[in-house]
Amino acid sequence: MAMVQDITGYLCLSLALLLLTLVLHKVARKATGNGAGKPRLPPGPWRPPRPAHAAPPLRAPHNI
């Protein structure tokens, strides 16, 4: 019977430490935003695709 109580005690202690660790991690992440110190922002505007083979810009001809 003593062995069952020891295992139960260790299990309760382990679960309590795990819960404490998870709560502290959650609080720390909330305090710093997304972990990098930046606030979490929505995505920015969509950028249109750039053509891979665009024509070179037009230049004035050089007279030599």
Commentary on this structure:
With 64 residues, the chain is mainly alpha-helical. It has a domain at 1-31. It is built from 1 helix and no strands. It has one helix spanning 2-31. The termini are far apart.
Q: Supply Rg.
A: 30 Å
- Mean pLDDT value: 78
Low-confidence stretches: none
Compute the number of helices. 1
User: How would a textbook summarize the main sheet?
Assistant: none
The helicity comes to: 40-55%
C-alpha termini separation: 104 Å
Q: Count the E strands.
A: 0
Structural class: mainly alpha
Could you give the order of the helices and strands?
A: H
Q: Shape, please?
A: rod-shaped
Classify the beta-strand content into a percent band.
Answer: under 5%
